Amino acid sequence: MKQYGVLVVDDSSFMRRSISLIIEKDPQFFIIGIARNGLDAIEKIQRLKPDVVTMDVEMPEMDGTSALKEIMKITPVPVVMLSNHTEDGTSTAIEALELGAVDFFLKSSLVGEEAKDETIKDFLSKLKVIANSCKVQKNEEDAEAIVDLEYIECDKKLMKRELLVIGCSTGGPSALQSILPRFPKDLCRPIIVIQHMPPGFTKPLAERFDTICNLRVREVENGDILEPGNIYIAPAGFQTVLESGKNDSIIFKVEDMKNIDSLYKPSINVTLNSVAPIFKDKLLSVILTGMGNDGLIGCQKVKDNNGFVLVEAEESCIVYGMPKVVFEAGIADDQVPLSNIYERIMLNL
């Protein structure tokens, strides 16, 4: 049985011990070391060579985000951020994901009165997949510098696809960072993003992208009308579907939808199942890096309605899970690395 070494980074001795005890519940993990701040973490990562790192967001001397920047430059390793559910903690966690952190968990969901066995089990399961198969590359450039102001003539006669839906999970925010800011301000298509995240984190994600994208980015609200030139982030904790409205309008329906059996809220399958019959061959679906198989059923629905399915190639995926199941099911029209995703999308819009 393969074992994975974990470095636990937190300025609180209580949290270091609590997180370590949780991790060691799984016999495939062992604590290779602990670190008290970002500077300590950088030194120990280089010396101890852990398989995966859990990193506190807020720490003295050097916080988790600053440390992450250096780690991605010097010694890339899978990093899972642990955040407090506060306004500052949430926005910092979003920034960390864009910088290359592969996932994050709320501390309160793992330690304390709000902790649940199901969440801890999910944490250990994800940590195992990340340690075993996660690929992290050196961060050689500032992703925010990627801006493409190319002018796209808005001629509906030339449109190939009228809606782009992007689904992603583990590693998604950093992948989105390399795509969304490149869409030109005159793009005459709407874009919907379904990113697996805990409730309360999709709105800050939308606000963050709104500051660096040419298109307007916002979290979807129930009753919103789908309009070209907007990027819509599906809210966490709910399902997002689209319905035909009056005067040829398309309306968002955002609800809990307890009758739908899905591990994910939002679910890529649920959204794609609703839009595929509406847009048919005018729909482009993209599945990026992520753990699990969400998107498989939805992409089949896209193909049943003659839409186009594009998936990220294994070589660039942080976790080659969701794209893999779609590709191996034979329903992907193309599979390309992240560096070519934007160009491939634009060829189909």
From TrEMBL:
Broad class of where this protein is predominantly found: cytoplasm
Single GO term (MF): protein-glutamine glutaminase activity
Gene: cheB2
Role this protein plays: May play the central regulatory role in sporulation. It may be an element of the effector pathway responsible for the activation of sporulation genes in response to nutritional stress. Spo0A may act in concert with spo0H (a sigma factor) to control the expression of some genes that are critical to the sporulation process. Involved in chemotaxis. Part of a chemotaxis signal transduction system that modulates chemotaxis in response to various stimuli. Catalyzes the demethylation of specific methylglutamate residues introduced into the chemoreceptors (methyl-accepting chemotaxis proteins or MCP) by CheR. Also mediates the irreversible deamidation of specific glutamine residues to glutamic acid.
4-aspartylphosphate sites (modified residues): 56
Single GO biological process annotation from the record: chemotaxis
PTM text: Phosphorylated by CheA. Phosphorylation of the N-terminal regulatory domain activates the methylesterase activity.
Statement: the UniProt record of this protein carries the keyword Phosphoprotein: yes
Segments forming domain CheB-type methylesterase: 157-349
Alphabetical keyword list: Chemotaxis, Cytoplasm, Hydrolase, Phosphoprotein
One Pfam family per UniProt: Response_reg
Uppermost EC category: hydrolase
Assigned EC number: 3.1.1.61, 3.5.1.44
Location of the protein in the cell: Cytoplasm
Keyword Hydrolase: yes
Alphabetized InterPro entries for the sequence: CheB-like, CheB_C, CheY-like_superfamily, Sig_transdc_resp-reg_Me-estase, Sig_transdc_resp-reg_receiver
Species name: Clostridium saccharobutylicum DSM 13864
Name of this protein: Protein-glutamate methylesterase/protein-glutamine glutaminase
